[in-house]
Design a protein that fits this description.
The protein is α/β, with parallel strands linked by helices. It contains five helices and five strands; from the N terminus they run βααβαβαββα. It has a five-stranded parallel beta sheet with strand order 2-1-3-4-5, sandwiched between helices. The protein binds ligand CA2.
């Protein structure tokens, strides 16, 4: 089982600014945690980060035939991108949305998530461990589909 973990704009700056929202751990810390969780789940995981909406759409499309599931934090594009929603719907790969903070308790404009409609689940407000919960959710979902 192989999953793709996609991160959107500015998440490469984790641990550098806004610790009140995103904590003090870095993006490198996050990818190390994900690698460790993948190993303990007996799956493989590939992490990617981009600041570009179209690149996220390309990666979601390219996941067809290579990834069994996707964990995605689209960051600010969560609240603006119909293109990312359409891509997830189109590829029909089980996808879990994750957010480090809880956007529903922050600014009004963060309360809309376009991608949520295409996801099998959402994990929010749990810090970086939320990515690991999203991976476990995805694995459990994929296990029930293949047994
Ligand atoms: O809570 C999340 O994970 C968000 O997806 C993060 C996005 C924000 O636009 C969403 O509303 C909620 C922002 C990511 C920016 O990441 C930074 C990390 C460190 C320093 C500055 C920005």
């Amino acid at each position: 089982m192989h999953i793709l973990v996609l991160n959107g704009p500015n998440l490469n700056l984790l641990g550098v600014r806004e610790p009140e929202h995103y904590g003090t751990q870095t993006y490198a810390d996050l990818t190390a945690m994900i690698a460790q969780e993948a190993e303990s789940l007996g799956i493989t995981a590939e992490c990617r980060q981009t600041n570009h909406e179209g690149t996220l759409v390309d990666w979601i499309q390219e996941a067809r035939g290579t990834a069994d599931g996707i964990v995605i934090n689209p960051a600010a594009y969560t609240h603006t991108s119909v293109a990312i929603l359409d891509a997830v719907k189109a590829v029909q790969i089980p996808t879990v949305e994750v957010h480090i903070s809880d956007p529903d308790t922050r600014d009004e404009f963060r309360k809309i998530s376009y991608i949520r409609a295409a996801c099998i689940g959402t994990v929010k407000g749990k810090g970086l461990p939320g990515y690991l919960e999203a991976m476990r959710t995805l694995k459990a979902y994929l296990d029930t589909r293949t047994t």
